[in-house]
Automatic annotation (TrEMBL):
The keyword Transferase applies. The lineage of its organism: Bacteria, Bacillati, Bacillota, Clostridia, Lachnospirales. Its EC number is 2.6.1.-. InterPro entries: DegT/StrS_aminotransferase, LegC-like, PyrdxlP-dep_Trfase, PyrdxlP-dep_Trfase_major, PyrdxlP-dep_Trfase_small. Keywords: Aminotransferase, Pyridoxal phosphate, Transferase. GO terms for biological process: polysaccharide biosynthetic process. GO terms for molecular function: pyridoxal phosphate binding; transaminase activity. Belongs to the DegT/DnrJ/EryC1 family. It comes from Roseburia faecis. This is L-glutamine:2-deoxy-scyllo-inosose aminotransferase.
Length: 393
């Protein structure tokens, strides 16, 4: 097999095998065990919050957040269209209605359009935001920090406060991203809004295989989230349940992997930032596209690198042609997601002032960003991209 540089793969350089073997030796492999508690404590310490709850996925973290913030059937939740569909599906789990919002040039939700929607399409009645055309209550905003790039949380939190909206931060791609300037200096992604969701999927900056975590501004709500994630058990002896619960708790085996990964997280962030810097240097004179930057006044985990391509230079070829040609040349890449408001389950939903999301969805190429990628690998990736563009595919 020839040379191949993958897009984003897990990195197990530390104590992963040691801790997992320890969990196996102890016999604690399911949704109880000391590693779950340790992971929650280490994550809370890193994020500088009081509590976190370890769950089975970022999706379950979002679902639990929607439940605890009071989203009911028939409510509306404002969501981005430029994101992975897992950020939106939990809205439908609650039989609520998503309202799709455009992105700005950061690829994150556009706060200007968010404000226009709240001001022009809605009215405030009895301390609740009501959608004029349908009379439905707009209950919350799901903000995604796309590819580790922090959304404009100052503007979004101002809007949320003014219009009585809960804010759920989807920080599934942004563990370790934080503000360095402004009102939220020192605050990490996922710790600014009312709730914050994290993912430890195999391609994320740290992984537990599957798995995720959730935190909240109010520590008592984290306890409620944890309670719901373990089938809402009120009496462990007689199995009394006073709420509908979920099988959303992380397993001890996953948490053992996560504890080891948390020990490596600062180094992984450092590598992501260093590797992005090298890409930036090598692509500076590339005429076929531009490497997108991250928000000023933040320190991003730089989880994914986005190359905005000049599609007009491809002589009628499309993004699929770019991806398949690079794959044949030993470089794995991917397109950004299909816009969610265009997906079959959501075509009947409100999509507000879509402009930039369709543009970016047509020209963004994600390039290899694993923490163990070498400088030589990065040079190889850039060389292949340049060859493909020079040939016009």
């Amino acid at each position: 097999m020839g040379r191949f540089v993958p897009l984003s793969i897990p990195n197990f350089e530390g104590n992963e095998r040691k801790y997992v073997d320890d969990a196996l030796d102890q016999g604690w492999v399911s949704t109880g065990g000391a590693y779950i508690t340790e992971l929650e404590e280490k994550l809370a310490e890193f994020l500088q919050v009081k509590k976190t709850a370890a769950v089975q996925s970022g999706t379950s973290a979002l679902h639990l957040s929607l439940i605890v913030c009071g989203v009911q059937p028939g409510d509306m939740v404002i969501v981005p269209t430029l994101t992975f569909i897992a950020a939106v599906n939990p809205v439908r789990y609650q039989f609520a209605e998503p309202v799709f919002m455009d992105c700005d040039d950061s690829l994150c939700m556009d706060p200007q359009k968010l404000r226009r929607f709240c001001e022009n399409e809605c009215v405030t009645e009895d301390g609740q935001l009501k959608h004029k055309a349908t009379g439905k209550t707009v209950k919350a905003i799901v903000v995604v920090h796309v590819f580790g790039n922090m959304a404009d949380m100052e503007a979004i939190m101002d809007i949320a406060q003014e219009f009585h909206l809960k804010v759920i931060e989807d920080a599934t791609e942004a563990l370790g991203t934080q503000y360095t300037k402004g009102r939220y200096a020192g605050k990490f992604a996922g710790t600014i809004g009312d709730f914050g969701a994290y993912s430890f999927n195999g391609n994320k900056i740290i992984t537990t295989g599957g798995g995720g975590a959730v935190t909240a501004k109010d520590p008592t709500e984290v306890e409620h989230l944890k309670y719901l994630s373990t089938q809402a058990k009120d009496d462990p002896h007689f199995y009394i349940h006073n709420e509908v619960g979920y099988n959303y708790r992380m397993t001890n085996l996953q948490a053992a992997l996560g504890v080891a990964q948390m020990e490596e997280l600062p180094e992984f962030i450092h590598r992501k930032q260093k590797n992005y810097g090298l890409y930036q240097q090598l692509l500076q004179e590339f005429s076929g596209g531009t490497l997108l930057s991250f928000r000023e006044g933040t320190s991003s985990n730089q989880w994914f690198y986005s190359l905005k391509l000049d599609m007009e230079k491809l002589q009628g070829k499309n993004m699929r042609d770019v991806i398949t040609t690079l794959q044949e040349r030993g470089v794995q890449t991917r397109a950004i997601w299909g816009l969610i408001h265009e997906q079959l389950p959501y075509q009947d939903a409100i999509a507000y002032e879509m402009e930039k999301a369709p543009y970016y969805s047509s020209c963004i190429l994600n390039i290899p960003s694993s923490t163990q990628i070498t400088d030589d690998d990065i040079r190889f990736v850039v060389e292949q991209i340049k060859v493909v563009f020079k040939s016009g595919i």
